[in-house]
Design brief:
single chain, 4 strands, globular
Length: 266
């Protein structure tokens, strides 16, 4: 019966040249940032904003995303381990990034950018950055698929994946939750991109940011039902909800606030 399922045994590495290894995850992660840079540049040009702001914003975003995602993993998901191995916290190359932490890191980084560089409300830049961020999320989940990580729960659906690198060739088929999320984020990107360029909502400060928060973290909340536990502090709540769901709830509520709050359009 296992022949009816998809056996997944893709290598996470594209090519290795001596000590240098090019991995799918790294390539897709970087591609998400570069495509995002192109999209936001188009937005800057449309508003005649200084292009040098974009270069600086890019640096802030990358640093905020990486540092935030790493610290999010450390504190949200694996603090008992890292509290005993503090020297490993900076070792990002060993793996361990959390999207909720990355989101917090980017927001804080862009808040600093707004104070030091643009002198505008942080919502001005957030309303732009969130559009390609949804696409970056699509790329990153494909990278997780290539790494055979963030696995789904066992399933009997015909499109289930047997992750041979994790469960072996005779392992149970699982939900390809990485593909579920990737496709959902791609759809979110299309909706956000259309909303920004084809409607007047982009002129309402915080609306695009709020819509992004509802879409992305709402999707994350639902997808957690199909995932194997990633650990974290969910046990403190009797495992009623996963750590990812508990972290997503405040993000969703923030999104609802920015979408519904009465604000005069610019």
């Amino acid at each position: 019966m296992l022949l009816n399922y998809i056996h997944w045994n893709a290598s996470p590495e594209i090519v290795s040249i001596g000590p240098i290894t090019l991995r799918w995850y790294g390539l897709l992660f970087a591609s998400g940032f570069l495509v995002g840079l192109f999209i936001v540049r188009k937005m800057f040009l449309a508003e005649k904003a200084p292009e040098e702001w974009l270069d600086k914003a890019f640096v802030y975003i990358v640093l905020g995303a990486v540092v935030g995602a790493r610290l999010g993993h450390v504190f949200f998901y694996d603090w008992p381990y890292y509290s005993q191995h503090l020297n490993e916290i900076p070792q990002v190359w060993k793996g361990g990034l959390a999207s909720h932490g990355g989101a917090i890191g980017v927001i804080l980084a862009l808040w600093i950018f707004s104070i030091r560089v643009s002198k505008k409300s942080v919502l001005w830049i957030l309303d732009k950055v969130v559009v390609p961020t949804a696409l970056a999320g699509c790329f990153i989940r494909l990278g997780n698929l290539m790494n055979s990580e963030i696995l789904g729960n066992p399933t009997t659906v015909s499109w289930g994946f047997v992750f041979e690198r994790v469960d072996g060739p005779n392992g149970l088929p699982r939900h390809p939750v990485q593909l579920y999320e990737s496709l959902s984020y791609l759809i979110s990107f299309v909706v956000l991109y259309y909303t920004y360029w084809r409607t007047e909502k982009r002129h309402k400060p915080g609306y695009m940011f709020g819509l992004f928060m509802i879409f992305i973290w709402g999707i994350r909340f639902v997808m957690e039902f199909f995932k194997s536990s990633q650990g974290g502090f969910e046990t403190a709540f009797n495992n009623v909800l996963s750590t990812g769901q508990l972290l997503s709830i405040p993000f969703i509520l923030i999104g609802v606030y920015f979408v519904l709050r009465p604000v005069k359009t610019e």
